[in-house]
Specification:
The complex is a heterodimer.
Chain A: E1 28-30, E2 34-38, E3 49-50, E4 57-58, E5 63-66, E6 75-76, E7 81-90, E8 96-104, H1 127-133, H2 146-150, E9 160-165, H3 174-181, H4 183-197, E10 201-207, H5 211-221, E11 227-232, H6 241-249, E12 264-268, H7 269-281, E13 287-294, E14 300-305, H8 310-316, E15 327-330, E16 337-338, E17 352-356, H9 358-361, H10 374-378, H11 385-393, H12 397-402, H13 413-417, H14 424-441
Parallel strand pairs in A: 1-14, 9-10, 9-12, 10-11, 13-17
Antiparallel strand pairs in A: 2-8, 3-5, 4-7, 5-6, 7-8, 13-14, 15-16, 15-17
Helix pairs in contact in A: 3-5, 4-5, 4-7, 11-14
Chain B: H1 17-39, H2 41-64, H3 75-85, H4 94-108, H5 121-132, H6 134-137, E1 139-141, H7 144-149, E2 161-163, H8 175-180, H9 192-204, H10 211-226, H11 231-236, H12 240-247, H13 258-278, H14 285-302
Helix pairs in contact in B: 1-2, 1-3, 1-9, 2-3, 2-4, 3-4, 3-5, 4-5, 5-14, 9-12, 10-12, 10-13, 13-14
Classes of the chains: A alpha/beta, B mainly alpha.
Chain lengths: 443, 315
């Protein structure tokens, strides 16, 4: 039976969500001459601390920056070669990030790896440390450190782990191709997480527009203890944490709470595959599948080293089909983040690079709300986006809070569907940042 | 090279305000065609005058007030055409002209323009015309065609004009005449087949949802049946169908939540039946919908739905 949640949209129906550009393209490895590896790819209080300096020779998989704090994770060299630079580079977002630039010697000379062997027989207590040592964070986009997610606080009642293979974002096929080409790794990763946390129920949830992936994962999951494959209705944002929990378990995460409060842990399938590699082979997270698509000559699914420059990845796909791109998006077109330039790096969380032309990139002008109620219809949190937008525009943040503005998951469904082209999600996001700043100041 | 930077979503739905309004205009085409068929060039003149005056009022106002020019969203065109289709064929041409100017300037622009009017502009204009020039507005002719084609063979002596806004059933009219519009009434309201075609188009294109029209028509049918009237005739006579499809589905003046829309539809149907059967007016669609327009903010404010996450912790 197909499972789903209430609300949501079917984005870009004319383009079939942009998926056909790459959904049948096997993953191709691509290695560039140079990588620039940011040290803040995961969510943490502080970036990892560099332990190499300019001129050092590093091996592939060697730790080049140490974890800082209990939630920190180390960063590893994704190529073997020479460190060219340790310093700040413009990445996504307003500020620059500390980065380590390595020139590739194309030897792919690995450090010695120590795996735990089989995920079913290894020492369960060694799994979480192995995940941390491998530098794994959520690869679906948020970048939450995986070892921290799997380290449950005292008294937490978690009985379910959901692997998120929905991939509801437009244009992206990285998870789809992974599940199709390497389903055993995905299942192994789930089993490792289940053993590490002592959870008995594991679900791999996949949208019904990826029938081939469902078949492959179902086959790989046969005979594995407590692993179930769930078919989800293809709908955006099916892969949002709260929506996938509702669809799979029927539970709701309480307002302001974490998935844990609904007895669940949600992990991306890519993260699970990385966990499997870390546990079985002791292999750190140094590469990932990224869908490079849109206005490029040969849209592809590339296996990229962490730190690959966007322009190199785009070059590997034959370059732009337009003279000048209008927008380069890290992620899909619903929640992806705009690249400030072409030279930012692929990180552990970059599932896609989508190039738009100038016309597609032109911002549409807002016109007045015509109260068509589409935003209300699609909101997966069952909020009143039009009302929140009005309150934000009037700067009435107190009333906005009473209208559950903090429950918004910033999925953009409301802005997508709005016939008046209103920037509903942006206004909500800005207002929430102001509210968060006020709370911090204790106002 | 400068790259654009914004938050998501980076690509939007194809449906925008102009395309929605264009779809409403397309949905009105069968009704326009029917009006031309039954009433000839007079219908065309009425519709063109109403349309032109609505567009001109919108243009002049936005020009004079230095507001952004929004003729391109076609909302004024929809209002104008709706006013035209609501006129009887005998009306002097200055009546729809005044109606359109009133609808756009007073009802729409004075309250802030598109999205801010609390009454349906076309209906409010109709109500004003109805009370200001009742004799012009209620003199509905029997369709020209009926006479020339001769398939309207009922007694016609003395009923070439009928004193009612959109007259309800004349004695002896059968369902076929009701469906095809071979009855007196406003030029766009009589041919129910044309209106139903419009409804089907609007539903397929996802422009309107079923809640309001279905609840309104269902309520009219049910209550008429309870009162001992023929429900089919009740739904097909007068302006109920046109109102349910094109007037009560106006986004701006109807509730945002589905449940609110259902209540709105039921309310419209209830008021129509009450006015028709217990009021002094022979027809109540205009006032029924206008009253529910006024109730809309109340419905929006008082109805709430459960937000995701308003639950107890698991376990």
């Amino acid at each position: 039976m197909m499972k789903s949640f209430r609300g949501g949209v079917h984005p870009l129906p004319g383009l079939h969500q942009g998926k056909p550009l790459t959904d049948s393209k096997p993953v191709k490895p691509y290695v560039s001459e140079m990588v620039c590896i940011p040290l803040n790819m995961h969510i943490a209080a502080a970036p990892s601390k560099p332990i190499v300096k300019k001129g050092d020779r590093v091996l592939m998989g060697q730790v080049i920056a140490e974890a800082v704090g209990p939630r920190g994770i180390p960063v590893h060299a994704s190529v073997s070669g020479t460190v060219k630079e340790v310093g700040n580079v413009q990445q996504l977002g307003a500020r620059t990030s500390p980065c380590i630039t390595i020139e590739n010697d194309f030897q792919d000379e690995w450090v010695e790896l120590h795996g735990l062997g089989n995920v079913e027989n290894c020492d369960a207590s060694a799994i979480i440390p192995a995940i941390q040592a491998a530098g794994i964070c959520g690869m679906g986009g948020a970048g939450f450190p995986t070892h921290a997610k799997l380290t449950l606080p005292e008294g937490a009642k978690v009985d379910t782990i959901i692997l998120n293979g929905a991939e509801c974002e437009t244009y992206l096929n990285a998870d789809h191709r992974l599940m199709l080409e390497n389903p055993v790794r995905v299942v192994d990763g789930l089993r490792a997480a289940m053993r590490a946390t002592g959870v008995e129920n594991g679900y791999i949830a996949i949208e019904d527009n990826k029938r081939d992936a469902i078949a492959a994962v179902t086959k790989a999951a046969t005979g594995r203890k407590g692993v179930h494959v769930v078919t989800l209705k293809a709908k955006y944002p099916q892969g949002a944490e709260k929506q996938i929990i509702k669809a799979v378990t029927g539970r709701e995460v309480p307002s302001g709470g974490l998935p844990m409060n609904a007895g669940c842990i949600v992990m991306n399938v890519g993260t699970a595959a990385a966990v499997a590699q870390a546990v079985i082979d002791g292999r750190p997270l140094v590469e990932r599948i990224t869908t490079v698509t849109g206005r490029v000559r040969e849209p592809s699914n590339l296996l990229l080293r962490v730190g690959t420059i966007f322009l190199d990845a785009i070059g590997a796909c034959g370059g732009y089909t337009v003279e000048e791109p209008g927008k380069i998006i890290a992620g899909g077109t619903m929640t992806g983040i705009c690249a400030p330039n072409e030279t930012i790096s692929v990180t552990k969380t970059t599932g896609g690079i989508v190039v738009l032309n100038k016309q597609e990139a032109t911002s549409m002008e807002e016109s007045p709300c015509i109260r068509c109620s589409r935003c209300v219809e699609v909101c997966p949190m069952h909020l009143n986006p039009y009302k929140l937008k009005n309150l934000c525009d009037m700067n009435d943040l107190e009333t906005a809070r009473k209208n559950n503005i903090m429950d918004c998951i910033l999925c953009s469904s409301c802005s997508y569907i709005c016939p008046s082209r209103r920037w509903i999600m942006s206004s909500i996001k800005n207002a929430r940042e102001i509210i968060a700043a006020q709370q911090k100041k204790g106002v | 090279m400068a790259l654009h930077i914004s938050t998501g979503p980076h690509l939007r739905s194809r449906q925008d305000t102009p395309s929605l309004m264009r779809d409403v205009l397309i949905a009105l085409c069968p009704a326009v065609a029917a009006s031309l068929y039954f009433y000839g060039f007079k219908a065309l003149w009425i519709e063109l005058i109403a349309l032109a005056c609505a567009l001109l009022s919108e243009y002049v106002w936005q020009r004079l007030m230095k507001k952004p020019m929004r003729l391109g969203d076609f909302s004024a065109a929809v209002t104008g055409l709706l006013i035209g289709l609501n006129m009887p064929a005998t009306v002097p041409l200055w009546v729809p002209a005044i109606g359109s100017v009133f609808a756009i300037i007073i009802v729409k622009q004075l309250f802030g323009g598109i999205g801010h009017n609390f009454l349906n502009p076309a209906l409010a204009a109709r109500a004003v015309l109805l009370t200001s020039w009742p004799s012009y507005m209620t003199k509905a002719t029997v369709p020209l065609r009926a006479l020339t084609l001769g398939f309207y063979e009922k007694t016609l002596e003395g009923v070439d004009t009928v004193a009612a806004a959109t007259p309800l059933l004349m004695p002896g009219t059968d369902v076929k005449d009701l469906l095809f519009g071979n009855i007196p009434g406003a030029i766009g309201e009589t041919c129910k087949i044309a209106i139903l075609l419009g409804l089907i188009y609007l539903l397929i294109r996802g422009v309107v949802r079923w809640q309001i029209p279905v609840c309104m028509l269902g309520t009219v049918a049910l209550l008429s049946w309870i009162l001992g009237k023929d429900p089919m005739t009740a739904v097909l006579s007068g302006g109920v169908l046109f109102g349910a499809v094109f007037m009560a589905t106006d986004y701006v003046t109807t509730p945002m939540l589905k449940v609110g829309q259902a209540i709105f539809g039921v309310g419209c149907g209830l008021l129509v039946v009450l006015i028709r059967n217990f009021g002094n007016y022979p027809e109540g669609v205009t006032y029924a919908i206008l009253i529910m327009n006024i109730v809309t903010p109340l419905l929006d404010r008082s109805l709430n739905r459960k937000v995701y996450g308003e639950v107890k912790q698991h376990g």
